[in-house]
Amino acid sequence: MCYMLSKQGYLSDRDGHWHPHLMFFFSSTDPAAWGADLPDSPIIAFNDTWEHLTTFLIPVRQWSDGTADR
Q: Rounded to the nearest 5°, which phi and psi values hold at 56?
């Protein structure tokens, strides 16, 4: 598990900052079995076939300083 809640987080020059979120890492699994990427699901997932890893991202509503994500 990893939490990315700091406003200092930076993805890239193109993307800048993203929402505060939690990340969970599992051995390759079907994201839909966990409810990811389904209609109205807040869970985003991607599979890394090279690393045999599925990563789940769950956005949260507040940054680590307690302010709301906008």
A: -110, 135
Helix (H, G, I), strand (E, B) or coil at 32: helix
- What is the DSSP secondary structure assignment for residue 65, as one 8-state letter? T
Query: Could you give phi then psi for residue 65, rounded to 5 degrees?
Result: -85, 5
User: What is residue 33's three-state secondary structure?
Assistant: helix
Across 34-38, average pLDDT? 93
- CA-based end-to-end distance of the chain: 24
Tokens for 57, please give them: 């991202």
- Give this prediction's pTM: 0.80
Q: Where are the alpha helices (DSSP H) in 1-70?
A: none
